[in-house]
């Protein structure tokens, strides 16, 4: 195996590990679904589905890569490179959806909006970044 192939495989392994780590978080989150708003529970389930779809694509990438390097990838059909490229594209799409869902969950869980203009502000902000209205952080005791 040449070094670029090895590097690629290591990168794939890292990414797969990161996705698996995320899946564990999502499962822990699923345990808390009871009592959460229905749409939040739905987002968490979407998250779990997307992450497991990424994982299965990563393992198929690994398998394709292995077959390609051992010379066992069947000739005549789709090339292994093309297959890997298309799988990476599918993973990329899902990673975008995952980050969108994570952002929405973040807003749901810690969202603070200015009562005057609706601008989202951070915990500890003394003034609204949108309209400058002084803010009292209602969640200070948390
Ligand atoms: Zn404001």
In short:
By secondary structure, the chain is an all-alpha fold. Helices cover 65% and strands 0% of the residues.
Question: Could you characterize what this model shows?
Answer:
By secondary structure, the protein is mainly alpha-helical. The chain folds into two domains: 3-110; 112-142, no CATH class. 65% of the residues lie in helices and 0% in strands. It is built from three helices and no strands. Helix 1 packs antiparallel against helix 2 and helix 2 packs antiparallel against helix 3. The longest helix is centred in the middle third of the chain and has 33 residues, at 38-70. It is elongated and about 65 Å long. The structure holds zinc ion (ZN). Zinc ion is lined by residues 114, 116-117, 119, 128, 130-131, 133.
Strand content is: under 5%
Estimated structural class: mainly alpha
Integer-rounded radius of gyration: 22 Å
Through-space gap between termini: 54 Å
Question: Which spans have pLDDT < 50 for at least 5 consecutive residues?
Answer: 138-142
How many DSSP H or I helices? 3
> How confident overall, as mean pLDDT?
81
Q: How many extended strands?
A: 0
Q: Spell the H/E element sequence.
A: HHH
**What is bound: which ligands?**
zinc ion
Tell me the count of domains: 2
Residues in helix, %: 55-70%
Major sheet characteristics: none
Instruction: Tell me, briefly, the overall form.
Output: elongated
Quaternary form:
single chain
